[in-house]
Amino acid sequence: MTIHPDSVNKYRELGLPAGHLDFGCNPEFNKYEPPSSKYDYDVALVGNGGKDWKSDRKDSVQILLRPLVERSYNLAIWGKRWDRFNEELMGFKLPKHMLKGELPYEETNKVYNSAKIIIGLQNDQTMLTSRTFEVLGSGGFLLTVPT
Q1: How far is the C-alpha of 33 from the C-alpha of 109, rounded, in Å?
Q2: Mean pLDDT of 38-58
Q3: How far is CA 145 from the centre of its chain?
Q4: pLDDT of residue 139
Q5: What gap in Å lies between CA 113 and CA 41, rounded to an integer?
Q6: What ranges make up the beta strands (E) of 29-116?
Q7: Where is the Spore protein YkvP/CgeB glycosyl transferase-like domain (predicted)?
Q8: CA angle, 131 as apex, 138 and 4 as ends, to 5°?
Q9: Angle at which helices 105-114 and 130-138 pack, to 10 degrees?
Q10: Please, what sign has the CA dihedral across residues 68, 63, 44, 34?
Q11: Which structural domains are found in the chain, ordered by start?
Q12: d(C-alpha 91, C-alpha 86), whole Å
């Protein structure tokens, strides 16, 4: 099974049985819980910054994140590599106060239930990230780009 639908035929051409199975969430973990003041932001992004900033991820950042940063929203960003954000390539600067560092997975559901909007960056136009299902399973409001 693969999470990437375009890979199914590639595996089959190699003689391997293959099928597509999308991500999901754990309803025992990704569920509503009371908001936490620790994660009370207008907008939150939980996800790692790009290594190479390939087109889909870069486009997601440009479409979703850039306007919010430029308008100084109450925004928090958790994840690896945001401290190495390529401002020249992306065309804007991330204020240091928005960068919160790594977030333990056990805390993600609290963010999804506490921030008003969760930004969902996508990596590929043909598949959704696991975070899409986790945020929605938690009852959070997800803003993402169309795939």
Answers
A1: 8
A2: 88
A3: 11
A4: 94
A5: 11
A6: 43-46, 75-78, 99-101
A7: 62-146
A8: 135
A9: 60
A10: positive
A11: 24-144 (3.40.50.2000)
A12: 8
Q: Which two tokens stand for residue 55?
A: 């087109």
Q: Is the pLDDT of residue 53 over 90?
A: no
* Average pLDDT of every residue of the chain: 92
The first and second tokens of residue 130, run together, are 């696991």
What is residue 44's three-state secondary structure? Answer: strand
The enclosing H or E element of 66 equals: helix 66-70
- Amino acid symbol at 54: K
Strand order in the sheet with 117-120: 99-101, 75-78, 43-46, 117-120, 142-144
Report the relative pairing of strands 99-101 and 117-120 from DSSP bridges: unpaired
Q: Which residue has the tokens 């969902």?
A: 120
Reported residue count of the chain is 147
Token pair for 71: 């308008």
